[in-house]
Design a protein that fits this description.
homodimer; 7 helices; globular; 8% strand; 159 residues; mainly alpha; DNA-binding; 3 strands
DNA sequence: TATTGTTATACTCTATAACTATA
DNA sequence: TATAGTTATAGAGTATAACAATA
């Protein structure tokens, strides 16, 4: 399989300069690093990025329907089910049947869910400030605008 | 499980404004959209984002050791193994044993691997231009700088 | 003892197809 | 028929522990 070879490995650094020309590569690296740190931030609350986002949406939009929630978070309905299951089992949200349309559910945060959301949000906000502490306010604003622009363009391409 | 309820779902839109305050949320959405589109770009070449990146690094750093490559890409050595397996089976790269340190391997791209890398790079570059077409050159530069700053800060926090 | 590549494993995220109950 | 929620499943990415060969 691995035959011996005369090739001499370079002494020191490994250059990824060819990849660094792509914003997608920078985005992946930045997001992975941020995400790994955010996991640690949310761990004490028993939340992950997606369960926090889901809880936040339900707190902010009482009575929300799962299909609207999935669309709002840009995730598949099928994948949302187990996330809401988890939040419901922890009694952070309730699932009830809509009287208008008995196919649909209405999602509402419990008082406990609202409290956990508030506490976790403080930690997430602190994490967000920390991770962008190397940027000025104008730079933060420009970054946000650029990210939304890229999302819109990329979504316009694909599906 | 789902008991009936008096709650009336909101008529129209689902607001994620509370989440939009976090750059991490914008980054996740932007990266997911970009990544989904990049998958389609690389599909004709039989490559994924990680296999393309790995091939690029090996082309640019002949004789590279897997441990250095993993560090350069910020992925685990264990996860690199199957990626190199795949590239080796397709005869895009070769794995040979280093004569200096017989524990280590030397990775080299074959001519076929170099050609595939060049072709795929054209497509990736076009995709990158397309997805950032809503940004001016200064905005692109600022975005790149901000992403690298965030990566450095986030990695400084965690591991 | 420590490091390199490797194997095994587990968890998360994502995507698709198909089912049920309602409309 | 179409839609909402659900189930099942598969693929990809990521992380950790432990092992054999070598240093």
């Amino acid at each position: 399989m691995a035959r011996s070879a005369p090739i001499i490995p370079p002494g020191g650094e490994t250059s990824d300069s060819a990849l660094r020309q792509f914003i997608g590569y920078d985005m992946k690296r930045a997001f992975n690093a941020l995400q790994a740190d955010l996991v640690r931030t949310l761990e004490p609350f028993g939340l992950r990025m997606i369960t926090y986002s889901t809880l936040a949406m339900i707190v902010q939009n009482p009575g929300l329907r799962p299909s609207h929630l999935a669309a709002g978070l840009s995730i598949e309905r099928a994948n949302l089910v187990v996330i809401v299951d988890e939040l419901e089992q922890r009694e952070l949200v309730t699932r009830t049947t809509s009287l208008q349309d008995r196919r649909a559910h209405a999602l509402t945060a419990t008082l406990e869910g609202q409290k956990l959301y508030r506490d976790a949000t403080e930690a997430v906000a602190a994490h967000d400030r920390l991770v962008t502490s190397g940027l000025s306010d104008p730079e933060r604003t420009a970054l946000r605008r650029a990210l939304r622009q890229i999302e819109a363009t990329a979504r316009g391409q694909g599906g």
